[in-house]
Amino acid sequence: ILDMEQHELILLADAGWETPAPFTFERVQPLRDSSFTTHALSPQTLLSIYRDTLGGSPPPTFLLTLRGERFGLGETLSSAAAGHLDAATGFVAERLSESEERAWRATCTGAIEEESTSHA
Predict the structure, then answer these.
(1) How far apart are CA 111 and CA 35, in angstroms?
(2) Which residue in 25, 49, 92, 115 has the fewest CB atoms around it within 10 Å?
(3) β pairing state of 110-112 and 10-16
(4) What was the pLDDT predicted at 35?
């Protein structure tokens, strides 16, 4: 949370099982859930702890969740997941070129549709 304190916008990234391909992009709000007692925190709980610890609202925070394909220990990146990563990389580059929350919020549509691979 201390790393977040000096920023105007926050982008968190994660991989998700059964996330719509290639990824989702959403605004995250503070909400304490049961993850605060585990070794990992949900983004919502992280923001809740920010608010409770620092006594103010966290910066606008967004979560990019890439569709993961294999999560076993030692698994390599699948070709499908590599494609999701490529799509997300371009999307993130566009977000980073925009410094206003409203521009980021305008792209929060949940699942980002994969480009059609059909050819005429």
Answers:
(1) 24
(2) 115
(3) unpaired
(4) 65
**Residue showing tokens 């959403």:** 26
- Strands in the chain per DSSP E: 10-16, 23-28, 61-67, 110-112
| Total residues belonging to the chain | 120
Sequence-ordered list of residues with C-beta below 8 angstroms from that of 46, at least 6 positions apart, any chain: 1, 12
Residue stretches of the chain with pLDDT short of 50: 111, 113-120
Q: How far apart are CA 105 and CA 35, in angstroms?
A: 25
- H/E/C letters for each residue in 2-13? CCCCCCCCEEEE
pLDDT at residue 114, rounded to an integer: 45
The separation between CA 59 and the C-alpha centre of its own chain, rounded to angstroms, equals 15
CA distance linking residue 113 with residue 31, whole number of Å = 28
Q: Which tokens belong to 119? A: 């050819």
Question: In this structure, are residues 28 and 44 in contact, taking their beta carbons and an 8 Å threshold?
Answer: yes
